[in-house]
Amino acid sequence: SFDRMFVQVCLYFYCKCLWRCLKFVVRKLTGRCELQRICYNIKPGASRTMKIAIQCLGSSPTELGVSLQACLLQIVGYRNLIAEVEKLRREPYDSENPQHEEKLLKLWKCLKPDCPLEARISKQWCEIGFQGDDPKTDFRGMGLLGLYNLLYFAERDAAIAQQVLSDSLQPKYSQFSKAEWEKKKFDKAIGYSFAIVGINITDLAYNLLVSGALKTHFYNVAPEAPTLSHFQQTFCYLMHEFHKFWIEEDPLDIMEFNRVREKFHKQILKQLQNPDMALCPHFAASESLINM
């Protein structure tokens, strides 16, 4: 009857409100939400998982469970990414390892496709920005991570990487005569070594990751768990942006590198303070990663 239905409806809303009031009181007394109480008070296993499932799916809209799952995947994925990146950073370059050597030689071919490498130990390495005739010594700070990032940039964004390399080798003050150039003692190029700066920017990206600053970016561009490719795509962005920033700053020589780098670092940190920020470059390397 109508009266019975009316009583059931009233009872339903009464219980619903009463339960919410009870949860509110318990939360105020314990300082924990229901999910926290379940996690803290129930041992791991079916009981805990089923109660959480009921809490997420039973008493709330379906979207909550989906959203919670996506957020947890991102959070756990970020932690896993730190571990993966750290593992690469800690692994030293080994010239006796064929895979390491293969990647290094591939880096040369990607950056200098029309110029064969005459020998493994060669001064030619300086042409792509290494300090000596054997690049392995330059990877000490960042381990394999530095090589992986440089190779990713050179492979996935070949045109941009080669352009940045070419720019770094061009005279900065071409309007001066040779006599004026020698008198002023300017650097012979825009002012930095491509590979060395790439390893340095790898360090910058690594610190942004470990400090948690990149959470804003990754949580906005990776719907689920961020991967190593997302990190490498971020490196590509930072490398390209730093190159433009360096030219805009117009430093006198390489001795100003630390000052320019620190200023660039602060600029990126400021951008990442915006919760809607995503470092989304229009790079070939990022096209398949943004909004996957």
From TrEMBL:
PROSITE patterns: ELMO
Domain ELMO: 99-272
Name of a matching Pfam family: ELMO_CED12
Molecular functions per Gene Ontology: GTPase activator activity
InterPro entries linked: ELMO_dom (IPR006816), ELMO_domain-containing (IPR050868)
PANTHER family noted in UniProt: ELMO DOMAIN-CONTAINING PROTEIN 1 (PTHR12771:SF18), ENGULFMENT AND CELL MOTILITY (PTHR12771)
Protein name: ELMO domain-containing protein 1
Organism taxonomic ancestry: Eukaryota, Metazoa, Chordata, Craniata, Vertebrata
